[in-house]
Amino acid sequence: MTPSSSTLSSHEDAVLTSLSASELACHIAEGRLSSQEVIEAHIRRIEAVNPRLNAVVVSLFEQARAEARKADSLLAQGTLVGPLHGVPITLKEQFMVSGTPTTVGILHQKSRLMEQEGPLVKRLRQAGAIILGKTNVSQLLMYHESDNPVYGRTNNPWNLARTPGGSSGGEAAILAAGGSPLGLGGDFGGSIRVPAHFCGLYSLLPTARRLTHHDTAPHAYVGGQEGIIAQPAPIARSVEDLRLAMNILTAPGLNAVDPLVPPVPWPDPTTVSLIGLRIGMYTDNGVFSVAPAVRRAVEEAAQVLRARGAIVESWNPPNVAEAVRLYVGLVGADGFATYKRNLAGDPRDRRISFNMRVSSLPGIVRAPLVGLLRRSGQAHMASSLQSIRGALSVDPYWHLVEERNQYRERFLAALNADHFDALLCPPHALPALTHGSSGTLNPTNAGSYAILYNLLGLPAGVAPVTHVYPGEESERSVGKDSVERVARTVEMGSAGLPVGVQVVARSWREDIVLALMAALEEHTGPCIPVSGDALLS
């Protein structure tokens, strides 16, 4: 029996959309594939899965088709534009792309089209990349889910009842489903690493200030906020694609466009030897216990790296609860005044509304409420409330920044004491959250494994290592604490979901992060896009 043309087309599409950006670039450059057929395969995949995922919220398909025709024409004339010639990519909605809105979930921004693009988007275009569209985010990029009043909710392709994370969840969802091979997101509190962990992908948070913020619309971040430095960050299905993206984004001259970017050369991960590399490992940060599969993933990764010659030893980070307090205090130091101005009278996500209400509570009310929560067994809620300080005047804000500096010094001193080159730990306490649970399971508890490295400004990556096994979903005791109860609910039914590990290095040593992640990738094999009837029905 001869397969139908539609069956053949579907099979060919599945092959094309499973290739990495690096592989696609190579095939296009050598003439084995045309940019047009690659672009069309990815557009068809997006059109097939996006009705169930709602990941791509701004499509640029006709523009992409025109650019693919131009890319093929140039190649026929012997001109290769760059290392991503004719390769499709997607971008997080926070980035400015000419002729598109950049709403970050703010309703009144939907009709405002961007007139310019920043240096990172320009660099990707100059490298030959073709933008297929922009992907969904959390409102104001503030929580570990990707839903907002403008575009609605994005679903995780591994399980539609779960979130792909946030705020770069749309990017993670469409990459995991095969609609794009490479994406650019951002990370302010785990915003690229948590989605990579939830969706079984690779991602990299660069060292603070490695990349510019000039691509992000002004209403998408708090201008002048220097306590925590957000970073644009690539996400992909291979470590090689992260390396390729960073080679493009960090090419010399970025500091001429943005003087806040120091002219630190990009290091070559291929020159890093794992033999004798000292790695500290931990599976519990003392703030929130992890799911069994998350703990196992770190332990398995440690064994892989030991087999490659690295020295992996147990380690405990210094007082992560203090780091959480500092992170929350710095992020909310203006009492969310900037976010309130940016939102104006628009609809607010309930998680944002809750944070704004809590931050406005006077200390005379907050202190007894914290005590009441502790006495009633709500330890996690009490700690979260205690971390929120509300709007600060100059003197206490400067004191908070100094506390951050002192904590960073203690953290680095602890690394120095054991001569560690890198760290291996969970990226999040749990596998992909059920929709709506991020209000309870937030960066002050389950997400604390990620925000620590935003506070410190260290480079950190996530690599997929395993999946939750049936029967190992949860060992969490259920008591009075409502946060622990929600965590157990998330854990139950999580079998089959992907689980990643977090790799951290010292400032400007992204090469070590990528080298360790590459070793893990060699062990686990390539990321295969999620497929299944649930995505196509």
UniProtKB/TrEMBL annotation:
Residue intervals of the Amidase domain: 37-514
Keywords: Hydrolase
Lineage, uppermost ranks: Bacteria, Bacillati, Chloroflexota, Ktedonobacteria, Ktedonobacterales
UniProt keyword annotation of Cell cycle present: no
Residue ranges of the TM segments: none
Superkingdom field: Bacteria
Identification of the protein by name: Amidase
Hydrolase as UniProt keyword: yes
Organism: Ktedonobacter robiniae
